[in-house]
Amino acid sequence: MWIDNPKMITDTVKTALEATKKQDTSWIMHHVLDARELDFSPFGVIHLPQLHLFGIDISITKHVVFMWLALVILVVTFIFVARSYRKSLIPRGITNLTEVLIVFVRDEIARPTIGKGNERFLPYLLTAFFFILTCNFLGLIPYGSTATSNIAVTATLATISFIVIQVGGMMKNGVIGYFKGLIPHGIPMWLLPIMLVVELLGLFTKPFALAIRLFANMTAGHIVIMALLGLIFILHTYVVVPVSISFALFIFLLEILVALLQAYIFTMLSGLFIGMAVHQEH
Amino acid sequence: MNTLSYLLLLTFSEGGEKGGSPLDVNPGVILWTVVTFIFLLLILKKIAWKPILNSLSERENFIKDSLEKADKAQKDAEKLIADNKVSLVKAEEEAQKIIEQSRELAEKLKTQILEESKSQAKKMIVDATSEIERKNAEAFNKLKDQVADIAVNAAEKILRENLDKDKQVKLVNKYLDDLKN
Question: Which residues of B touch A6 (CB under 8 A)?
């Protein structure tokens, strides 16, 4: 057994460690990871300000900039859209596009998943949907960066979702009533401690899954595209160019679908969990 | 122990020279995400979701109302048409009845008038006949009286002038002349 020879394991691990240090994956990671500057090479690089507050590094990063870009795009678009509704109830131009999405979120996500009382959570669901959708799409434009491929961003969004779920459930059922409702009816007393742990774990796995799903989906596509294009440089041949380009293009088209799909799934699951917290009898 | 530490080192080692892994959590980004998302939520709730959702529900209600109104109007129109048909049939029947009635009335009136005039004519004839008879009888009586008078006068004159023949003839002639006059 290999475990009998600690020296061998140590050597292997050492070699592997050296290998990981030598292996240059920065050309993929540079694209995916957050950064402290906006890289518009070959036109130039904009360095972002470094900020510190109470000893915490709150520097503006690339992903923060793209979140703000999404914010500006959404605010400007919806000021325009809201104004167009004031003029006439008939949608025209970009209002058609946003209306399809708004009605989709309302009729296909909020109403079936939450049911009665979905109007209270509709602003949150709409904001989450449009924010994630815009961030996803911003990663698909040249020089763009996907803020939703940052685990910090998705985890924060999932945490906000978690708070909305819990607060929504507590506001409907009362704090004590909500925690009572978490445990299913009619289980034997001796199962109670186990069920309590399971249900409490369940509460936290839901947002965790939300965060990981969005992060993984948005990161994976970009890494695959970069890897496919990277084949050209790894193999040092032009032969793979058509293959790389066509495969990368295919993945890119898939990314458009994934961008829409992940915004939908995040919103839909948030709605589903809110519905479960609000209507505990089901 | 050395082995274990190497394994741990491998697990948490950072690939690449630049460092940084997709799983690194930057607290600054968390803060900015919270700030951005809450700000976006509040501003969009105020400027977008409320007015847009209101407009949407307003339009949906408007469409629903319009459809209901149209449905009601159609039903009303159909009912009106049916009513009209019924009343048309009724009116036709009424008219037919009126015509029938007036025809009967006219027939009755005709026969009545005819009978009346017939009986009147009969009565007139009867009246005329009796009048004629009465007049005849009157004339006859008058004639009878006159004839009697004449006869008596003639007898008187004959008796007065019953002297000679000449005179008698003259008398008769004169009397006859008188009678002529």
Answer: 2-3
